[in-house]
Amino acid sequence: MNRYFIAILPTEPLASEIMKVKQYFVEAYRSKGALRSPAHLTLHMPFLWKAKKEAQLINLLAQTTNVNPFKIQLDGFGAFPPKAIFIKNKPSTELNAFQEQLTRFTWREMKLFNPTHNRGFHPHITVAFRDLKKEGFYKAWPEFEHKSFEGEIEVNSFWLLKHDGKQWHPFHEFIFKPKN
């Protein structure tokens, strides 16, 4: 079984700007967990899939690309106390609709449970989590709570990421085919 998850990946130069923030958390707070994946906004939490059925996984996800491109505006920092700090995005009707469509599809057609379906979808780009100690969080959050971070992600695709046993890698991109 391989581990995968589904996400939106920002392109350059925004991806590098986000990675610099992640690197800052490594240097200032010894929180390196967020470096185990590229800058991303999660659409579907990690899941297991049989390696021999990987082509089927790609073919199934390709059925979800009938989507019009949209934009996501990044807007400052947020937190899930006492463990995670992230880059927030402004509310996006298009993002929420796409994520809901994807979640319904993966449940119905692939029997994948996405915990966000029950807890609600809270899109964000994590810059520090899990290994950020409570003391580090309470020191870092006042530094980032009112800090500015702006950017725009032009979303015309989504990615399947695959875990290699140590970190996550972009594995397959699904380009949107706009609705007519």
UniProtKB/TrEMBL annotation:
InterPro entries: 2H_phosphoesterase_YjcG-like, Cyclic_Pdiesterase. Coiled coil: none annotated. It comes from the Bacteria. Gene3D superfamilies: Cyclic phosphodiesterase. Signal peptide: none annotated. This is 2'-5' RNA ligase. It comes from Roseivirga ehrenbergii (strain DSM 102268 / JCM 13514 / KCTC 12282 / NCIMB 14502 / KMM 6017).
